[in-house]
């Protein structure tokens, strides 16, 4: 008798080359068996006819910090089928504070956004200052650092130093392309790749640099794909939502402070001021993140304007700025050896309401741009390997953690989210509590001393080779 058996789902496990109707047995939080028909019974038997069961969905780029809209990103991720995620900016202490009341039972890793002006009073800190800050950051439990170039541009020399130091220390480093010399566009992507030649880097949301701001969308996407083919040291993801995410705060003079918001306003012909934001909201091209007290969603029109003004402009929002063509090209592009150019499908969501790996991402399968096995590879296996979580992303009996996502392919609807064999969400009802934090050896003691469950990983080794399924 196993702890649990899920019977009759279409099981898709690209690592093991399996795609068929099967039963899956769970014991002690691990996958115990996978077979077309398992004899015996579980303490809990669950019929899953008509559903697809995949290794747990992993979102390799989302946001859980309340500064991006609400404290409820973990709930929203679990509702969308996510079992493991990488928060890309923190603040880590903010996320830790939300876990007791907003945790949903999923696995969470986080990297800290780097803001040297706030930390050191300069955009060009010394290498010693950068190293000292990063050491403290990972000792607190974060796994690394993110350069927020598109939103908060820094000198290219500072960015290069951060990537070099992170590589030397063996900690995680990501970059939202952009600096004081290039924007969050294809020019910024070129600049980043040239700046980090030979270094390991996670280059965030490739689709965000292919919005047609410099060249036609198709040309930008083709260039981005070739840049990544030519620079295999870069690991990357792209999201599939038409909506972006940005900060709508204005300074005391009424000027927009976030550079992504500035660019979006210019794109739609509005000034980069509070009046510009008002105009964009009224025109219906800017939506404001609304905190419902349970999750967050997007408000529009008069309600959006009221929320933004009531918050003193300190809110997050979304513009529909991601062209379908570049999202499609980036999701399916392959290298000459058959591996994916952009390694994963992410959301850049979390508390930003666009957790659409399943609800939109499966459209790529129906369209024929990806097979279902390839979709699972890009949303589970590849990000698991990148995060060095080698017991996730597959369903190998005796080896794999029992993290699973069940969905209905026809309606592209998540039905159940399972972490370590336990259901944390089913049919829209949240069941899971707390969180298991993914950290390195540097942060384990701090997090365990605070009573958190911990998974230890490492980034001081070589990036795992890309695999072709």
From TrEMBL:
What stretch or stretches form a coiled coil here? none
Pfam families assigned: Amidohydro_1 (PF01979)
Q: Which Gene3D superfamilies match?
A: Metal-dependent hydrolases, Urease, subunit C, domain 1
Query: What's the superkingdom here?
Result: Bacteria
Any one GO molecular function term: hydrolase activity, acting on carbon-nitrogen (but not peptide) bonds
Positions of the Amidohydrolase-related domain: 52-424
The name under which this protein is listed is: Amidohydrolase family protein
